[in-house]
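S.,

Sequence below, as promised.
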Amino acid sequence: MRILSVRRGPDDSSHPGVAGGARRGPLTLAVAALVATGAVQAAGATGAAAAGPKVPPGYQVVSASFSAPAATQTSGPATCPAGTVVLGGGVTVAGGALTVAIGGSYPATSTQWAGIVDNSSSGAATFDVTAVCADQPPGYGLVSTPATLLRHHSNVKLEVTCPAGTESLGGGGHSLTASLSANLSATLPLGPVGGLYSWTTSLINQGSTPAMVEADVVCGQVSGYTLGVSRSEAAVNRGTQGTSVAPCPGRLVPLGGGVGVFKDVGGVDLAATGPTSSFPHGWRATLNNNGPTDATFEAYATCAN
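The prediction came back faster than expected:
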C-alpha cells in the first residue's frame, strides 16, 4: 500500500519510513492517571507497586468529555501532557443509543488522539475521547493511508504498515467527509507478517452519498510488546449492543486496541473502544448492530511494559 505520510516526533530521526447518556467517571489506572476535562487533573495511584502493572516510562491515560447534539457530527481531542506523546486511544459513546456511532478514532498529531461521533438520533449524546500517552519511544512515528473513496451503501478495509523494526502501538481511522453515515466498523492490530506490524481499519457507509476515509497507525519500539485478544468470540444480537474485552497478559498495560468482526452482516458499527479501568488491564470494545441478523466479534489490545 502506498503511504501518504510518515509523521515523526519532534526528536526522532531514526527508522526511515516504509512502503481509533450519562458522563462516565474519570479513567483511573493502577498508575498515575490524568483526566482532561478542560483542565488536566492528576488521579491517585492505586495498588501496590509489586503487584500492580509495569508501565512504559511516562505512561499516563487522559480523557476529555464532549457533547454531541442531535443529527450532528461532533469531534474533539484528548491531549497528552507536556513531554509525552500519544501511543493509542479510543472513543466511548455514553447512553447505548444504536443510532450514535463513532465516525473516527485516530491519532490527530503526535500529542493528540481525536474522536468523531455521528449522532443520527433525535436527542443529544455525550462521549469521551481517551489518549494513552508515554515518553517518546525509539522509532516513533505516525503513518497514514492515502484518502480513500468509500462509496455509498458499501464498506472498505484499509491497512497501514509500520516501518521495519517498529510495532503498531495504536491505530484507527476516520471519515474525512462530514457525513453521519460513514462510521468505523472494525479496527485492530495485525502482525507480524514478514517481520512487519500493521493496523487494519474497516469503515461502513450506510448513506446515499460517498465519503473519503483514511486509516492511521502509531509506530514505535516498546518493551514487552504483546498482542492481546478476548478469550472468546462475543455475539451482538441484531438491534442491540455487544461488548468484549481483550486482557493484557501479566502486568502489561494497554497502549491501544480495537475490535474485529467475524460475522459482519452489514449495519454493524463501533460505539466504544478504549482501555479498561481495572486490573488486570486490557482493551474494551462495544458494537452497535443495526443489521438484519446477529454478528460475532472479538476485542484486541496492544500491550507493553
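The CA atoms of residues 29 and 278 lie 7 Å apart.

Coffee later?
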